[in-house]
Write a structure and sequence with these properties.
Layout lengths: L16 H11 L7 E6 L5 H12 L4 E12 L7 E10 L6 E5 L8 E5 L40 E2 L2 H10 L7 E4 L2 H6 L3 E4 L1
Parallel strand pairs: 2-4
Antiparallel strand pairs: 1-3, 2-3, 4-5, 6-8, 7-8
Length: about 200
């Protein structure tokens, strides 16, 4: 990773497969070769997108097809299961771009014809949301985003816990809001915060 991404600040957050994407993008330059990789879905989400895809787009990479997140398990004992994507790309464009969408991540996909498939695997322009520490306009600098720093004391980890509290303090209901982290979203959990 340190060799392949030597010029990329923060490459340590990238999945190992990102190195294969960049090497493939470099090697297919000036050819009609297409490449595709099965990857953990994190390369098309969050902070990995800006780090990896800003580099890939320098090589004029165009995504030709993409399987959005689906569940993949291997044949090993214990059946490790991961959420993956498949991304097929080349350094030239094509008129027929396909997104394979999974209504059920363990089910079969349906095809969506796309004009462009961007690094987030949606039919949209190749825009990337990058991490930044300075505001884009003349406003005060933000120190923290959504970060509870109460030691978990104002978080209700279940509906039962929240309801039990509201039985004792019904007037507090207007102050209780749903609290959702990325992990909560992926695992279908619900939590609430008082504040």
């Amino acid at each position: 990773m340190s060799i392949v991404f030597s010029n990329v600040k923060g490459y340590g957050v990238l999945d190992y497969v990102a190195a294969w994407y960049l090497k493939a993008a470099q090697m297919i330059q000036g050819t009609d070769i297409k490449a595709a990789f099965v990857s953990t879905n994190s390369i098309s989400q969050g902070e990995q997108v800006s780090l990896l895809w800003q580099e890939l787009l320098k090589y004029n990479i165009k995504i030709h097809f993409a399987h959005r997140t689906f569940n993949w398990s291997n044949e090993a004992r214990g059946k490790a299961a991961v959420h993956v994507v498949i991304i097929g790309f080349a350094n030239f464009d094509t008129n027929k771009k396909l997104i394979y969408e999974y209504e059920d991540i363990k089910g079969e996909p349906h095809e969506i014809l796309a004009k462009n498939i961007n690094p987030y695997l949606v039919d949209a322009k190749d825009l990337i949301v990058a991490n930044r520490s300075e505001p884009i306009s003349n406003v005060p600098r933000m120190v923290w985003g959504n970060k509870p720093t109460d030691g978990g004391n104002f978080i209700f980890h279940s509906k039962e816990e929240k309801d039990e509290f509201l039985e004792k303090e019904p007037a507090a209901e207007k102050w209780i809001k749903e609290y959702l982290s990325g992990q909560d979203f992926i695992q279908g959990k619900k939590r609430w915060v008082y504040g």
